[in-house]
Amino acid sequence: SKRLFLSQATVKSHLVHIYAKLGVDSRTSAVAAATARRLIRR
User: Fold this and answer.
1) Per-residue CA distances from 10 to 20, 24, 26, 31, 35 (Å)
2) What helix, strand, coil percent values describe the chain, rounded to 5?
3) Kind and range of the H or E element at 17?
4) Of the N and C termini of the chain, which has fewer Cβ atoms inside 10 Å?
5) Please, which residues have CB within 8 angstroms of residue 41's CB and are 6 or more apart in sequence?
6) What confidence score (pLDDT) does residue 42 get?
7) CA dist., res. 1 & res. 16, Å (int)
8) What is the pLDDT of residues 1-42, one digit of tens each?
9) CA dist., res. 38 & res. 14, Å (int)
10) 37 secondary structure, DSSP code
11) d(C-alpha 32, C-alpha 29), whole Å
């Protein structure tokens, strides 16, 4: 967050929205869901 000049609260807020869109509740689950949907590569 410091490198991008964002507060930690902003980063957490973005993560909450990403989790909701993917239907998950953790970073690990988000990565797994995004990989399965081919949103990111391994």
Assistant:
1) 16, 19, 17, 19, 24
2) 60, 0, 40
3) helix 8-22
4) C
5) 35
6) 74
7) 15
8) 788 899 999 999 999 999 999 999 999 999 999 999 999 987
9) 20
10) T
11) 5
